Amino acid sequence: MKYLTPQQIDAMASAALTSFEFTCEWDTATQAAAEYCIDEYGFIPRRSAVLLARKQAQLKWQAIKQATRAILEEQEQ
């Protein structure tokens, strides 16, 4: 049994976020995170690790949305 480090899960989350930016589908992004692990680390990740990467990608996406919203509101003033 192999465990992923926080850095590896973060890399999977980045792959999921990139996928989401192109497809706008979280299911596809989740699959991208799993495929990233298989390609980069050579093993199939546990479902919990993939879902954690998805959740981190969703948090990153929310941060991007909030930052963009703040910039737009600032420009309106």
Can you walk through the features of this model?
This protein is an all-alpha fold and 77 residues long. The chain has one domain. The chain has helices at 6-23, 26-41, 47-76. α1 packs across α2 (26-41). It is elongated, with a radius of gyration of 14 Å.
What is shown here, in short?
By secondary structure, this protein is an all-alpha fold. The chain has three helices and no strands. α1 crosses α2, α1 (6-23) packs across α3 (47-76) and α2 (26-41) crosses α3.
Topology, please?
Layout: H1 6-23, H2 26-41, H3 47-76
Features:
83% helix; mainly alpha; 3 helices; elongated
Total of DSSP H or I helical runs spanning 4+ residues: 3
User: Which structural category fits the helices and strands?
Assistant: mainly alpha
According to DSSP, the number of beta strands is: 0
Uncertain ranges: none
Q: Could you estimate the helical fraction of the residues in percent? A: over 70%
**Whole-number total of structural domains:** 1
Q: What integer is the average pLDDT?
A: 96
Task: Encode the helix/strand succession as letters.
Answer: HHH
Describe the sheet with the most strands. Answer: none
Strand content: under 5%
**Which radius of gyration do the C-alpha atoms yield?**
14 Å
Distance between the termini: 55 Å
Outline: elongated
